[in-house]
Amino acid sequence: MGDGLRHIDVAERRARLALRHRLAPGARVTTPEAVADALVALHGTDPATVYLAVGARLADPAETVTQTDRALYADRTLVRMHGMRHTVFVFPTASTAVVHASTGVVVAARERAALLKDMAKAGAPDAAWLKEVEESALAALARLGQATSGELAAEEPRLRERFVYAAGKPYEGLHSVGTRLLKVLGVEGKVVRGRPLGSWTSNQFRWALAPRHPELPVAGAQSDLLRHWLAACGPATEADLKWWTGWRVTEVRRALTAIGAQAVTLDEGTGYVLGDDVEPVPGPAEPWAALLPGLDPTAMGWQGRDWYLAPELRPALFDYSGNVGPTVWWDGRVVGAWAQRADGEIVWRILDPRGVGSEAEAAIASRAAALGSWLGPTRVTPRFRTPLEKELVS
Question: Quick one: which of 12, 182, 192 has its CA closest to 90?
Fold first, then answer.
């Protein structure tokens, strides 16, 4: 290139994705902790995504549920908490301090201020009262270990108090102190989601006290998070980084400078990798297939997705809010979608047949059979339904 920067083409980006996201056969790992560390974070908005994303990357997925339950609820080596873009993720527990300082502090201050403002407008008690309720609720949670919102309210009845939100507006409603306060405490890194009330696909969780972690300087934490993410997902554009982190562009640029990121050229413009990650990366030994869940960290990893997902496929694979559904991958790109029918059958459809021959179809069928095997009697419906997923199960 005339500017002297190394160019990383689409083929190499797909090779990096296959290896670093543990999707190629030789790159798969043996524990959920290794999966989460490789991806930085697992999307946790839909509880099933965590398990399905792990299972897609384990060398032996048969123990996906047992192993992931162990990591989340017995060993607590993984923790479900708010992170980037005010979204719930599952992180390695060792990352919680970095995530909180880099992305949670600013959001937490905004959430608490919004709660106090809404309560004041409704004539509800003041900040001192709320602080008293908070301390009582945290003390109750410490005694109980884990608890539902209702169980906490039995210990601290003031959590049940309600106030009118947005009075006189079309979206006026009643908010409970407990619901809003627990959300604020989650963003503040004081509480995390514990065991679900039902199976691993349940959307209802108990609450638990967050693991203790040091308070880190924001700039240093942002540098640490960006370094980890670029190691997993680089190269990426500035727009990708701003979107994934939810930071201001000035924060992204400051962190890029602090970690000594190296600029490279991509088909869509300038991208960045770590300073020691400029050399070419050879691809996996053989083509690979994967069935990834809705909101999978790989499918949702970049804002600019044309290098692995053709734009014409998006209407079928995304919901109206931009959430990706279950996807079928062949050798580094999305080629279709999959779903689970009521009888448990895993069905799939190819939307982009380019390069998808008999070898690809056999590999995809094999992955579908493996997925159906470890799911067993469990039925999974994505929290965010997409047009093709709904069509496949109809």
Answer: 192
pLDDT per residue as tens digits for the range 174-213: 999 999 999 999 989 899 999 999 899 998 999 999 988 8
How far apart, in Å, do the first and last CA atoms of the chain sit? 50
Residue pointed to by tokens 């559904």: 325
Same domain, 224 and 204: no
- The verdict on pTM exceeding 0.90 is yes
User: Tens digits of per-residue pLDDT, 123-146?
Assistant: 888 899 999 999 999 999 999 999
Q: Read off the DSSP letter of residue 382.
A: -
User: Under a CB-based contact definition with an 8 Å cutoff, are residues 308 and 11 in contact?
Assistant: no
Q: Are residues 226 and 371 in the same domain?
A: yes
In a domain, 9, yes or no: yes
| End-of-domain residue from the set 175, 209, 243 | 209
> What are the start-end ranges of the H helices in the chain?
10-20, 32-39, 47-55, 64-69, 96-99, 105-121, 127-144, 149-155, 177-187, 218-233, 238-245, 249-258, 314-317, 358-375, 387-393
Instruction: Please give the Cα distance from 141 to 374 (Å, whole number).
Output: 34
Establish if 70 belongs to a structural domain. Answer: no
1 Cβ contact list (under 8 Å, min separation 6):
7, 265
